[in-house]
Amino acid sequence: MPELPEVEAASRIARRAVRGETIAEVEVLHPAQRRSLPRRAAQALAGDRVTRVARRAKYQVLHLASGRSLVVHFRMAGDWGVTSPGESLPRHSRVALRFTSGRALVLVDPRALCTVTVVEAGDRPLPELGPEADRPSFSAAHLGRALRDRATAIKPLLLDQSIVAGIGNIYASEALWRARLDPRRPGRDVQPAEVKRVVAAVHRVMREALAHPERYYQDGEDGLRFRVYDREGQPCRRCRGPIQRITQAGRSTYWCPACQR
Ligand SMILES: [Zn+2]
Prior knowledge:
The chain has a four-stranded antiparallel beta sheet. It has a four-stranded antiparallel beta sheet with strand order 2-3-4-8. Helix 1 (about 5-20) runs parallel beside helix 7 (about 190-210). By secondary structure, the chain is of the alpha+beta class. A hairpin with a 2-residue loop joins strand 2 (about 50-55) and strand 3 (about 60-65). The chain has helices at about 5-20, 30-35, 40-45, 140-145, 155-160, 170-180, 190-210, and strands at about 25-30, 50-55, 60-65, 70-75, 80-85, 95-100, 105-110, 115-120, 245-250, 250-255. Bound molecules: zinc ion. Zinc ion binds near residues 239 and 258.
């Protein structure tokens, strides 16, 4: 699933492609997307202009001149495509924003799970979200407060977007490996020095991924992509112990039992 760094990279593409463009038509190309964007809501967007593209957590918000906004979530496998006038839409196109210039911004998603929602002017576009994972506002003081009294394990707590925004399953495993912390540790048992290590690790993982957004989509054992994620049974890059996969809150966690305590 695309996480903060990948959604940020995608939102830069959208920003370049659509700022100042006027919507000619919004085509909903798959029934699954009609649930979040019914035909009538899509039709009502014609004539509106995109003034700004923002990202918050894993959401992208296309602000429109009318005061409305379009909130886009890629879910598991969404991404943007941009087409030139006259060019046909890419495979797995789910929603196409066609502009008066003839260009289009297209939501491409093989799994058709992505969502596009219209938020009316004055309405709250996003749920309650914690500080962005790559920002100083995601601090040891903040995380320490959020973990206090929590019996839940640290790994699922890092996926809670109201605690910290933008981390998903991959970078939660990566950050806990960097911090040398056992992902099963209850939040309330994580000591202040360890909280600091987790925050520093999250910042570092985010910084590296933001600097190299292409790595997320690269396969192969080149040592660049992920340190623990998807490496079950392979040697830990720190201690050579075997990486294990466990299930926490229904999601896979990858970690090194030998050096994460
Ligand atoms: Zn290890």
